[in-house]
Write the structure tokens for this entry.
Amino acid sequence: MEKHIVKADGNGAIDVNGQVSPVTYTVGLKQGKGRSYEVDIRLMAPRDWLLQRGFEQDAVLVTQSGARIPVYHDGGSHHDDGRLDPADTISIELTARDDSCTSEVDLMRKYPEFDGADA
């Protein structure tokens, strides 16, 4: 049986081709298989800011802990290759899934956002 999802917000930065901007993001936690954890990461970024920096499909989220996590646009744009288009919505959702944490200690070190959450 899958444990309920715990969500928390964080403040970090988004890095697109070496150009960095502050960003808020949400992390969602659920128990994975065995002793692992799955963390879903979501953030919204301004379409025009991304396009001006040459964004195509992926960027890097720098989290509160300093972890660098690749985040991706799901390809919901008008292009078959998933790249952004000026006709896309003004805010673009970028997401990632991280299942690299195999203990609660690893999880709290990488995602201090969950500190104090009912995990």
